[in-house]
Amino acid sequence: MGFRKDFLWGGAVAANQVEGGFNVDGKGLSVADVATYKPNVDVKDYKRNVQVTSENIAEAIADKTTTFYPKRRGINQYYRYKEDIALFKELGFKVYRFSIAWTRIFPTGKEKLPNSKGIAYYKKFIKELKDNGIEPLVTLSHYEMPLELALEYNGWADKRVINLFVKFSKACFESFPDVKYWLTFNEIDSVTRHPFTSAGIIEDKTDNLEETEYQALHNQFVASAMVTKLAHEIIPTSQVGCMLTKLTTYPATPKQGDVLAALNKNLMNYYCADVQSKGEYPKLILAYFKRHNFDIKMTNEELKIIKANPVDFISFSYYMSLLAAEKENGLEMTTGNTVVGGKNPYLKATDWGWTVDPVGLRISLIELYDRYQKPLFIVENGMGAKDIRESDGSIHDSYRIEYFKEHISEMKKAVESGVDLLGYTSWAPIDLVSASTSQMSKRYGFIYVDQDDEGNGTLNRYKKDSFAWYQHVIATNGNEL
Ligand code: BG6
């Protein structure tokens, strides 16, 4: 028994990391457009890289160039999408995950009517995918909310954003009825790790940051449920998923204190998917709010909406596992991410310090399936690495092939043990701007893009060795790795 016959093999990206064209055809600025590439910051010092202050935002708005704002230029997919889709077709893709930039449809988030040029672009884009036999998988919110909403409302901290997001989503469902698979919020749990990127929360304007993050998450749960309902009404065949960052945590030792620490981390990691899938807050989370005196504003009406509109499937990203201990000071910690945890001495790590744990993927699949009993979809998994393009244009990325081979092989074992898995989209099929560090040199693709961190390069696309390898995996439906 292997993968289902209609298994959705493909790749995943986000608009702000690939499109470019940040100020054309009526697009407004998003929170991603003020994310800075900082050449002199050690990329392993991730936390310092993502901290955004009111001062940084003001500087960024005044600067109209793209030099230190790589997400404004992406990899120019806005203009080169036909060429990229042709390459995805050659890879054999059944599905392509991308996000619709909210600011292309509603430039500030507050307009009454959608921007027709934004709609027209995604219509063309989706048609091109369909014409090439590729199913779109659309993320409605992937770290790119209108900047205006962050500045005016402190992002998702304010309930007024809920209806603005519902308006945007409704415009998408009405304009793109051919799309069957939708995700509401990318890595929803990440609000507590990078509140500005994920929810438009400006830290220096926020009194109680942790409380505000949980309020923003609650507002997103309400919006997600409202949008799930709308999707089902407007596109009856649609399937809507939640999306979590699967962070599997092991106890650092068998000591009881460490086991408890790991248990608590895992429960925290599950809670967003619990709310979105079961339609209810776990009682332990409500007790956590109470213990910390968090006054999260939730009405009975909102709780009813959440209860009545659970998601159809569970999607997640998987990059690493972590260790937890009762006393963390004895542990070496991971670097290079907003996710910080104990480093597992038995595992290798990437150049950015992300631990590589393929068996952890199998463990995650089994745990998630057992907990939710809904189909799963792996919508991100991959390895950021420094690739070298040889003088003949070839790129020998055997380490990436190794990474995918090990992960897909564990994924197959999970499926063989009974997990219902809809598909797998690698992050990312083509090199793009890193979400965390805004680097180009942190490369993920099967396709190399000739562009450096400062934006120099021809933007030409080249196939890496992993291209033919993944093509064969898809052609054999994962039977030959
Ligand atoms: C996920 C995000 O957290 O990780 C992506 O959903 C991101 O947007 C990916 O690109 C890899 O992270 P990074 O920082 O290496 O780009």
Helix and strand layout, with pairings?
Layout (H helix, E strand, L loop, with lengths): L7 E5 L2 H4 L27 H5 L3 H9 L14 H15 L3 E5 L2 H4 L10 H16 L3 E7 L5 H7 L6 H16 L5 E5 L9 H5 L9 H26 L4 E7 L2 E4 L4 H23 L4 H9 L8 H9 L4 E5 L3 E4 L33 H15 L3 E5 L17 H19 L4 E7 L19 E3 L11 E3 L1 H11 L6
Parallel strand pairs: 1-2, 1-10, 2-3, 3-4, 4-5, 5-7, 6-8, 7-9, 9-10
Antiparallel strand pairs: 11-12
Helix pairs in contact: 4-6, 8-10, 10-13, 14-15
Bound molecules: 6-O-phosphono-beta-D-glucopyranose (BG6).
6-O-phosphono-beta-D-glucopyranose binds next to loops.
Structure overview:
It is a single chain. This protein has 481 residues and is an alpha/beta fold. The protein has one domain (8-475): TIM Barrel (Alpha-Beta Barrel), CATH 3.20.20. Helices cover 40% and strands 12% of the residues. The protein has 16 helices and 12 strands. The strands form 3 sheets. An 8-stranded parallel β-barrel has the order 1-2-3-4-5-7-9-10, surrounded by 4 helices. It has a two-stranded parallel sheet with strand order 6-8. Helix 15 links the parallel strand 9 (376-380) and strand 10 (421-427). Helix 8 (160-175) runs parallel beside helix 10 (209-234). It is globular, with a radius of gyration of 21 Å. Residues 14, 17, 186-187, 317, 380, 384, 427, 434-436, 442 line the site of 6-O-phosphono-beta-D-glucopyranose (BG6). 6-O-phosphono-beta-D-glucopyranose (BG6) binds next to loops. Keywords: Glycosidase, Hydrolase. This is 6-phospho-beta-glucosidase. Belongs to the glycosyl hydrolase 1 family. It comes from Liquorilactobacillus ghanensis DSM 18630.
